[in-house]
Amino acid sequence: MTSTFVLRHAVFALLVSCVWAFDASSQTNVALYWGQNSAGSQESLATYCQSDAADIYLLSFMTSFSNADTLPTLNFANACTSKFSDGLLDCDQIAEDIQTCQGLGKKVFLSLGGATGSYGFSSDSDAEGFATTLWNMFGGGSADERPFGDAIIDGFDFDIESGESTGYAALATKLREYYSQDSSKDYYISAAPQCVYPDSYTGDMLANADIDFAFIQFYNNNCDVDKQFNWDTWADFAQNTSPNKNIKLYLGLPGASSAASYGYVDVDTVKSALESLDATNLGGIMLWDASQGFSNEVDGKTYVEAMKDLLEETFSSISASSESSSTVSSSSAYSSASSTEASTVSSTEASSSTAESSTSATSSTESSTVSSSSATAASSTESVAASEAASSSIEATTSSTSSTSSTSTALSSTSSSSTATPQAPAVVSEQPAPTVVSEPTSTPVAASVPTPTSAASEPTQQAPEVTSSTSSTQTVPTFTATTLSTLTVGSSTSTSSTATASASAAFTDCSALSGKDKAACLNKNFDSGLYTGSADSCSIEGETACSSDGSFAICNFGKWVKMQCAAGTTCFAYVQNSDVDIGCNYQSQKSSFTKRDGYLDIFKRSPAHVHHGHN
User: Fold this and answer.
1) Which stretches of the chain score pLDDT less than 50?
2) Staple partner for 120: which of 148, 163, 180, 382, CB 3.0–4.6 Å?
3) Where is this region: Disordered (predicted)?
4) Is the bond preceding residue 76 a cis peptide, omega within 30 degrees?
C-alpha cells in the first residue's frame, strides 16, 4: 500500500514537472518579486505559485552584504522572523514553499539589493569571496547555517540601486564557476537595471558578465512605457553588447498603480508596447510585486493573469529560437498569430508598402548580418539603435547608413561610423532623411514600428557631434515613434565643447515664462550647452533637457545621459497643446521656437508646464 502511494506520488510529481516545465527561452514568461509585502496583503510564496500566470519568483531582498567575512542581512517583511543565534534569518516556511514552487515548475531566485539597504564591494576579490558565501548558503554548496534549509534556489538576482558597480561582474563570473560544478539542475543569474541606459549600478555587470535575464524597470523613470520608451536601446544592447547574445529582456512594470510613484500602465498600453517592440530577445514581463499584481483586478482577472494572457496571445505562435551567431533578424515581434519563422528567425509585419535593406555590422568579436522589415520602411544600420519615444514628443523613425532599396520611398545612400565606450555607445552618423509613418502621440498605434539597428563599434575617447545629411525625398511630416541611442556625457571632446559654450553664454532662468517665450528661452540655454543650469551635473532625477549637439538628455543619478535623436530630428523645446515639451522634433520646426513672432522680447513672465520625472 505504501509503495503504491509513493509510486503514484512520484508519477504525479513527474507529470506536474513535465506540464509546468520552465522554458528559459520563451517570450511569454512572467517574473514576480515577492517578499516585501508591498500591497500590505502578501500571501505565502506557495499560495502564489499555485497560479499558472507566473514562472519566476524573486525573493526580495538580501539587503546587506559586503564580503565573505561579514554576515549578510535578509529581509522578507512579515514572511520570516525566526533567526539563528547570530541573527541570520532562519526561514523554514519559505524553504518549504520554495520546494513546493519548484515542484510546480517555477523558478525561485534570491534577489540582492533593493532600494534601501547597505551593500556593495570594495574590490573584485571581495565579490568573488562573497560568491562562495552565496553558493554555500543558498545554492548547491553546504554551510552550517542555511536560511532556506535544504531548499536550493535556482539563481541569484541583482537589483542594485545604490553604491558602486565594483565587483558585480566578478561575482557573476565566479557564480558561473560554482554552477558548473552541479549538473543536477539549471542555475541562472539575473539583473534588474533601471531603464535609463546604461544603468549606473548594473551596467558594468551586464556588459561584462554572462547574465541570463534582465528585468528592466520601466517605471519611476522618464524612459517608461508611456514616456520616452527606450526598449530598442536595450534590444541593441542585447544583440551587440551583452556577452550573452541569448540574454532575455523583461518588460518591468508596476503590478498596480500603488506599486510605484509612476509608470503603471493599463492593459491596452502594455498590449500596444508588446506589439511594437523588437522581440528578438524578449523574455516576458516582470512585475513589482506579487502582492500588488495579484490584488489588482482588471476586467475580471488579476493584473498578473492579464499580463500572462497578453504575452501568450501575442507571442505563443512565434518561434523562440535563440540568436547568437551570424544571422539576426529584426522587426516588430508580433508579426501575427499565424506567422512563424524559425530557421532564419525572420519576422515580417503585414503591410501594403514595405522597404527593406541590409547591412553588415562588425565589431572586435563578431560579424552579423541583419535583415529587417516594418510597416513602411526598414533599414538596418551601423549606428546604435535605441528607444521608442513617448506621448508628448513628436519624433521620427531612424534610418542611418547603407544603400536602401524601397518600393515606396526613396532614401539617400549614405555611410556612417560609430564609436563606443564600454558602457554607453557614442554615435557619429551622417543620416538620410527619415520615412515617416503617421501615429498620434496620444494614442499608440501598433502598426507603426521603429526598426531596430545593429552597431559597429570600437573604443574611443571622443564623442563627436552628430551631423546629418538630408535627402530631397521625404513624406509629409506626421507623428510617430523615434529611436534614441544612449551616449555618454563627459568624454574629452564633448566636455571641452560644453565648457566653451558655457563660458560664452550665461544661463537664463526660464521658469516664469510660458508658451513660445519659454521654449525660446530653454532653447537658448540648450544651444549654449547649459542644459537646465549646468552641463556637469543635474539635481532632479528624470528631468529632461537637450544638449548643444541636439541630443535628448535625461538626468540620471546626478549626471546627464544623452540619447541621439532619430534621423531628420533634433532635440529642442517646443509648444504642443499649450504646454512646453522637450524632446526630439523635426529640425525644420526648431526655428519656430527660437524667437517670438515679430522678433519681440522672448522673456515674457508667466507660468508654463515642462514635463519632469521624479523617483
Assistant:
1) 1-18, 319-503, 596-615
2) 163
3) 322-380, 392-475
4) no
**pLDDT in the model for residue 483:** 33
Asked, for residue 449, whether it belongs to a domain, the answer is yes
Cα distances (angstroms) measured from residue 281 to each of 96, 126, 272, 364, 563: 33, 32, 18, 22, 22
3-state SS of 504-534? HCCCCCCCCCCHHHHHHHHHHHHHCCCCCCC
The CATH number given to whatever domain includes residue 256 is: 3.20.20.80
pLDDT in tens, 70-81: 999 999 999 999
Say how many C-beta atoms besides its own lie within 10 A of residue 61's C-beta: 25
Quick check: pTM over 0.70? no
Helix and strand numbers (H, E) in the chain are: 12, 24
Please state, in angstroms and rounded to a whole number, the distance separating the CA atoms of residues 90 and 294.
27
Per-residue exposure over 438-457, b if at least 16 CB sit within 10 Å of its own CB, e if not: ebebeebbbbbbbbbbbbbb
Does some domain include residue 571?
yes
3-state secondary structure 65-91: ECCCCCCCEECCHHHCCCECCCCCECC
Quote the CA–CA distance of 613 and 607 in Å, as a whole number.
18
Q: Is 96 a catalytic residue?
A: no
* Whether residue 298 is found in the same domain as residue 356: no
Which structural domain range is residue 434 located in?
A: 328-487
Which three cell numbers mark 338? 499565424
Q: Same domain for 312 and 338?
A: no
pLDDT digits (tens, 9 = 90+) for 143-171: 999 999 999 999 999 999 999 999 999 99
Query: Of the residues 435, 465, 487, which one is the last residue of a structural domain?
Result: 487
Q: 190 forms bridges with which residues in the sheet?
A: 157, 213
In a domain? residue 322: no
List 128, 161, 275, 395, catalytic entry: 161
Assigned domain for 321 exists = no
Q: Are 409 and 473 in contact (CB under 8 A)?
A: yes
Q: How many domains in the chain?
A: 3
